[in-house]
């Protein structure tokens, strides 16, 4: 869906990076992460900034870019990116059917805004339905063409680096 609306692959990567999580980044680190030239990334950053979707601030000799949360379409774009990644439906189904899920985190590449093809999750709760987890892994791949890697923990260790998508 998103790739039919947005024809630039670099622009899609930037939208995923900035609108799937509250990421901020520099030109050179984005070029390295995307394995693209700084010029192609710069062109797309400038286009998104001119459209008001990204904001930047100077930090020394470099610019730090992030999504413009004040843009009128910020929430719509964030929701579209979430739907594109399939995370909204995935989380809802898993949390609803797994049992007593206390917290759910997205970790790894997706937490950093990188669409690597594998969604890594950590579910925290007791007596979660592991049989359903095996079933949902297959169904999720069929639906969103992404592998789902889930780790289950009884308690939250308190130092998980990722996006808390369920719980407090």
Automatic annotation (TrEMBL):
Q: What organism is the protein native to? A: Algoriphagus antarcticus
Superkingdom of origin? Bacteria
Protein known as: PaaX-like protein
Q: Which SUPFAM superfamilies match?
A: Winged helix' DNA-binding domain
Provide a GO biological process annotation: regulation of DNA-templated transcription
């Amino acid at each position: 869906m998103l790739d039919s609306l947005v024809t630039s692959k670099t622009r899609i990567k930037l939208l995923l990076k900035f609108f799937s999580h509250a990421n901020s980044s520099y030109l050179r680190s984005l070029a390295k992460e995307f394995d693209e030239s700084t010029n192609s990334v710069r062109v797309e950053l400038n286009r998104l900034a001119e459209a008001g979707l990204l904001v930047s601030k100077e930090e020394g000799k470099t610019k730090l870019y992030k999504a413009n949360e004040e843009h009128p379409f910020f929430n719509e774009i964030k929701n579209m990116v979430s739907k594109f990644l399939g995370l909204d439906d995935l989380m809802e189904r898993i949390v609803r059917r797994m049992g007593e899920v206390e917290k759910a985190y997205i970790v790894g590449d997706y937490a950093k805004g990188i669409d690597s093809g594998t969604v890594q999750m950590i579910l925290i709760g007791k007596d979660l339905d592991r049989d359903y987890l095996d079933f949902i892994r297959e169904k999720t791949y069929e639906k969103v063409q992404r592998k789902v890697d889930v780790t289950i923990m009884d308690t939250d260790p308190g130092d998980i680096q990722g996006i808390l998508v369920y719980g407090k």
